[in-house]
Amino acid sequence: MSIKEEEQRIIEEFSVFDDWMDKYEYLIEIGKSLPVIDESGKSEPNLINGCQSRVWLAAEYKEGKIWFTADSDAIITKGIISLLIRVLSGRTPKEILDADLAFIGQIGLEENLSPTRANGLRSMIIKIRTYAAAYINN
Amino acid sequence: MISDINQLRLQFPILGREIYSKPLVYFDNAATAQKPLSVIEMSSLLLEQTNGNVHRAPHRMANDCTSYYEGAREKVRAFLNASGTDEIIFTSGTTASINLIARSFSSKFLKSGDTILLSQAEHHSNIVPWQLVANELGLNIKVLPVDQSGRILSEKIDEYLDDSVKLISITHISNVTGLITPVKDICKKAQAKGVITVIDGAQGIVHSKVDVKDIGCDFYAFSAHKLYGPTGVGVLYGKRDLLEQMPPWMGGGDMIESVSFEKTEYAPLPLKFEAGTPNYAGVAAMGAALDFCNSLVENIHKHESDLIKAMKEGLSEIDGIKLFGGFENERIPLFSFTVDGAHASDIAILMDKMGIALRSGKLCAEPLVKHFGAESVVRASLLPYNTLEEVEIFISSLKRVVKMLLN
Ligand SMILES: Cc1ncc(COP(=O)(O)O)c(C=O)c1O
Q1: Last residue of some domain: B261, B278, B294?
Q2: How many domains does chain B have?
Q3: Model pLDDT, residue B301
Q4: Nearest by CB to A20, which of B20, B343, B346?
Q5: Is residue B247 within 8 Å of residue B264, measured between CB atoms?
């Protein structure tokens, strides 16, 4: 499945909720099911500090694709991370760099990426792109 | 005179709006207050009807703006019971006021080896400006500790006022705990040792009657926007004899008597500290905000204590809650807390979806939040225009959110 197709599936999953609380309830559920990064992955170099919450991101490059694992101390952040990983993990560096992640806006969660939230999510996306850029010539 | 809460709420158009189709419950007043009609009208007046740069041109609109500007200075003077309008400096906010003192006072009166005393409960605005000058001038910074609840240990002040301490800068009311510092007592003890006193009144001005003569402080700083006024305006009150001896901090128009390339004479107080075109539209609107404050009568304050009681009762029903500042200490209607197992940012995001505006994070007071062993806290802060019904909505929503996060 392409990145765009995966994004489309997420948009459809979220389209059943017209109430904000239901939407976030679902996001929390997703967050709780995110496979937790193991303790060694929660090391200082993987930490992205936000004012509101903390995010850990680890990346592994295997056979032309990048695999991400991540975690956060806040569950909503974790839910969004989980969606990002579903879309971006196991992709080639070029696919990652080409992704515009428009689905976040389409499911109404873009405010969580605004700089004022300062929850590390924005920095996480930048870091994902930095990894991809570093591997693009491999 | 405003004595009824519904009548009071009608003064604030924003309180009638909806957020995500739910009635807004605005509990982030410590960050900034909403504005009454009189402030909105004064702001529009200076955009629509009367605009001319103050203190300069000899035309009607400039004169009118100067009258609003200087009229507001007199309103601030009366509000604080200062001796004269020359003791009232307009700035862009509390932060700018503290930076002004830190820069101007320190450069004239402090030298390497001197100590500045702060407290563990300070906002970053009352820490970082001092660190900047301390680095430059070789000053030391000492910190008055707080107890477990976050109460400043003011009774220990004598131990901390050693001979090297030249200035103490301390918050009147903490923006994290909502606890009230006994500033009068602190100023008395400091003054006895010749120590200069600076009060960060960003929260204090909103929730207590401030009389600078009674408090006995040398400086008092606050922002208009937390006191129903516009953003971008603040006040520095300072005792005349100190302000007179302090050098200007910024140079420019309006703050001079005469300028030549050989020698420039500064304007007398207060303009010496108001270089450049000031935010006169904002200052005029602050004048309207002070009139509004003066119109609130005593039973509004009784309503405030009802809100505090209801919030305490409601919060104490939440399992795993930690209320900073404690349930016993006397406080303003400001409540910072954590709930075991639920992240502060998650709580605030979900409450927003129910129309409730809160703050979460380190509240610009990282040393105090760290002292509590927390990474991030939730804060609900109320003003008299909030209602007991809103407290009920807040508590029941909080229970729902905590349940969602813990299950
Ligand atoms: C105690 C305290 N001090 C200082 C400030 C800074 O005020 P301002 O950002 O308006 O300059 C605030 C508000 O954020 C505060 O609560």
Answers
A1: B294
A2: 2
A3: 81
A4: B20
A5: no
Beta strand A65-72 with B165-171 is unpaired
Q: Do B251 and B366 have their domain in common?
A: no
Cβ A64 vs Cβ A75: under 8 Å:
no
Q: Residue B388 is encoded by which pair of tokens?
A: 């007991």
Our count of domains for chain A comes to: 1
- Alpha helix locations (H) across B182-278? 183-192, 204-207, 212-215, 240-245
Least Cα distance to B144 among B135, B155, B152 occurs for B152
CB nearest B346 (choices: A20, A51, A74): A74
Instruction: For residue B44, report the distance from its CA to the centre of ligand 1, in Å.
Output: 26
Q: Which residues of A touch B344 (CB under 8 A)?
A: 52
In a domain, residue B35? The reply is no
Give one DSSP letter per residue of B305-329, joined into a string: HHHHHHHHHHHHTSTTEEEET-SSS
**Same-domain pairing of B133 and B205:** yes
Mean model confidence pLDDT for chain B: 96
Taking the CA of residue B97 as reference, the ligand 1 atom at the shortest distance is: 11
Residues B333 and B250 in one domain: no
Q: Which residues contact A127 (CB under 8 A, 6 or more apart)?
A: A48, A57
Could you give the CA distance from residue B367 to residue B121 in angstroms, rounded to a whole number? Answer: 7
Q: What is the CATH number of the domain that holds B368?
A: 3.90.1150.10
Average pLDDT score over residue span B14-34: 97
The verdict on A20 touching B (C-beta cutoff 8 Å) is: yes
Are B252 and B272 a contacting pair, CB within 8 Å? no
B19 shares a domain with B161: no
The whole domain housing A63 covers 3-135
Q: Which of B342, B312, B310, B341 is nearest to B324 (CA)?
A: B312
pLDDT in tens, B220-242: 999 999 999 999 999 999 999 99
Range list of β-strands (E), B83-128: 88-91, 115-119
The answer to whether the Cα torsion of B29, B308, B126, B70 is positive or negative is: positive
- Are B73 and B204 contained in the same domain? yes
B100 and B10 fall within a common domain: no
pLDDT surpasses 70 at B39? yes
Chain A positions in Cβ-Cβ contact with residue B362 (cut-off 8 Å): 51
> Contact, B238 vs B89, CB < 8 A?
yes
Min Cα separation A84/chain B (Å): 18
Is position B36 within any domain? no
Q: How high is the pLDDT of residue A47? A: 82
pLDDT value at B327 more than 70: yes
Domain region containing B23: 5-30+298-406
Task: Measure the CA–CA gap between A106 and A14, rounded to whole angstroms.
Answer: 9
- Give the phi and the psi of residue B56 in degrees, each rounded to 5: -120, -70
